[in-house]
Structure formats: C-alpha cells, structure tokens
Amino acid sequence: MNISVILCTYNRAASLAKALESVTLSELPNSVTWEVLVVDNNSRDQTHQVVEEFCLRYPGRFRYLFESRQGKSHALNAGIREARGDILAFVDDDVTVEPTWLRTLTSPLQKSEWAGSGGRIQLDRALSPPRWLALDGPYSLGGVLVLFDRGDNPRELDWAPYGTNMAFRKAMFERYGGFRTDLGPNPGTEIRGEDVEFGRRLMSAGERLRYEPRAIVYHCVPENRLHKEYFLAWYFDFGRALAREWGRGGDIWGIPRPYLGILREATTTMVKLSLRWMLALKPQQRFFYKALVWREAGQIVEKYRMASQPGKRS
User: Fold this and answer.
1) How far apart are CA 303 and CA 313, in angstroms?
2) Residue 31 CB coordination number (10 Å)
3) The whole model's pTM is what?
C-alpha cells in the first residue's frame, strides 16, 4: 500500500511545524510506503523554510510543492495531481495527530468496499466554552470548531467527513473529479465546504465511506474564534457554500426548481427560525437558532447573486 499525506498550508509556519512533527511519529508497517506532500499556497512567512527542514531531516519522506493559484481547493487539487500514493490522506496545518492516526485511517481502504474514510476530530486543549455555546447535544455548534465525532464504534458514515481527517482512494478523484474551486477557504472569505461536498458527491454516487473513531487528530482553536461574531460570520458563509453546492437550490429528480421558489423557501425558513430565536429562553438554544438565521441569510444572498449572474458556475 502506498500512501500520500496531503497537507495544504497558508501563512501558518509555527503551527505547521507542530503538525508535521506529529506526523513524523506515525506508526506504520514496514510494508507500507508513505510520503508527506506539503502544498504551500502562496505563504509569505517561514513556511518554505519549515518544510525544507523536514525534507532534510527525513529524506524521501517529505516533499514541498508550491501552488500559486490562491485558494485551498486549488492547493488540494495540485497535491492530488502530484501525489505518488494510491491512497490519499488529508490533514491540516493547525492539528496534531496520534501516532496511530494514519495507519487506522487508511487501513479500511485496503478493502475495495470502501472508497474513503474519516476519523475523529477533537479539541487539542481543555476548552471552557462560553455559556451561549453548546458543543454537543441538539444545539451543538461544534462544527464551527471542526469537531467531528460520530461515536465510539467503527461503521459506515452517513455524514461526510471533515477535511482535516479524511482519506480517499486516489481513483475516486480520477472518477469523480477534484475539489470544487468555487468552494473552500480563500483569504478574505470563510466560504468552506469543499471537503464535505466531495464526500457527499461520493455517497450520492453510491460509494461507501468508513468511520474510524480511533483515527484521532487534535484541532487547535484560537481564542479569537470563541466569539459570537466569528460563529455568525461562519454560518453566513456556510449558507453561501450550501447555495453554491446545490446550484439552483436542490433539483428534485433532476428537475430544477425556479430561483424564485428557492428564495421564497429560504425566506420562509428564516422567518420561522427567527421566531424560535426570539422565543428561546436558554442562551445556547437562542444562539443556535440565531446562527441558523445567519445561515439562511447567507443562502438568500448567494442564491440572489447566482440568479443575477446565470453565467457563473453554481
């Protein structure tokens, strides 16, 4: 089995070094050939020097690739093209991984029944969330902090994995295409969703994805993300990403629904959520519905943009 770990990075030299250091401790059988391909997406800090140091320390294990087209999806697709492995594992520059992470995440892909896999994402430090923020339960907003936990037992995924802890057969990208470049982080925007869109694309085509709870990464949560403004901006851009992913708004049996109907539906949903937000008594419940209102607002804004620019890709 040949594995390529693809890590895309942008101006995070300090956390990148920690991420790469944790990956070096990966425990894999001698029969497995593996590499770490770091894709630098126009960083202006010490990223190149950090990666070169690892290339010197671990000859043949690390490779550096520069991608000038700005945007994480461009970097991801460049890494896929240059990867030597037949299994591609993805991790980000702001996490650290368990020594058994890579082996556990990729082991299911030795069997042809699995097209991809996703692991558990936990916080890297004890976090005392604000009283308005729920990280579990029915009002959880943990997805904003990239938490991903589908339980303790391995099973088939019914939810697309997150990009900092997932793996796919390289053949899946050859069959279904790469990550959508109209989705994914760019400087100045938090429109994400390129990772879950690809996972949903595979599942919609009948491919099976495996959940591996023992494949664990720890995500660093900066202090500036624990503010309401960050969560609301994230949910607004999340709504925009959903609108882009589903194009004209979720065709039914291949028949496009009119833009006007989709806008009406989103507006109606936003009104209902606004009422729940205003009537909720508990802080976590109130902020949960407020965030969903921002999500619907993002969808409305993006659907209106797409309707006024029909030539743009949905």
Assistant:
1) 12
2) 6
3) 0.88
Q: Are 172 and 202 in contact (CB under 8 A)?
A: yes
Q: Which residues of 224-260 are buried (b: 16+ CB within 10 A; e: fewer)?
A: eebeeeebbbbbbbbbbbbbbbeebbeeeeeeeeebe
Strand partners, 284: none
The domain locations on the chain are: 2-225, 235-308
Residue ranges in 136-258 assigned as alpha helix (H): 170-176, 194-204, 228-245
Q: Is the CB of residue 73 less than 8 Å from the CB of residue 181?
A: yes
* Alpha carbon distance 87, 111 (integer Å): 12
Q: What are residue 35's DSSP bridge partners?
A: 4
Q: What are phi and psi of 147, to 5 degrees?
A: -85, 135
Q: Token pair of 61, please?
A: 């294990």
| CATH H-level superfamily of 2-225 | Spore Coat Polysaccharide Biosynthesis Protein SpsA; Chain A (3.90.550.10)
Report the 10 Å Cβ neighbour count for 68. Answer: 10
Question: How far are the Cα atoms of 50, 51, 78, 84 from residue 46, in angstroms, in the given order?
Answer: 6, 9, 21, 26
Concatenated DSSP letters for 192-215?
--HHHHHHHHHHHTT--EEEEEEE
Q: Is 294 exposed, middle or buried (0-12, 13-18, 19+ CB in 10 A)?
A: buried
Average pLDDT for runs of 10 along the chain of length 314: 95 96 95 96 96 96 96 96 97 96 96 94 82 93 92 95 96 96 80 91 96 95 89 92 70 44 72 84 93 91 76 50
Residue in the block written with tokens 């409305």: 300
pLDDT digits (tens, 9 = 90+) for 136-191: 899 999 999 999 999 999 999 999 999 999 999 999 999 999 999 989 888 766 67
Task: Give the model confidence (pLDDT) of 195-209 as tens digits.
Answer: 999 999 999 999 999
**106 and 1 Cβ atoms separated by less than 8 Å:** yes
- Cα 49 from chain centroid? 26
pLDDT for res 279:
83
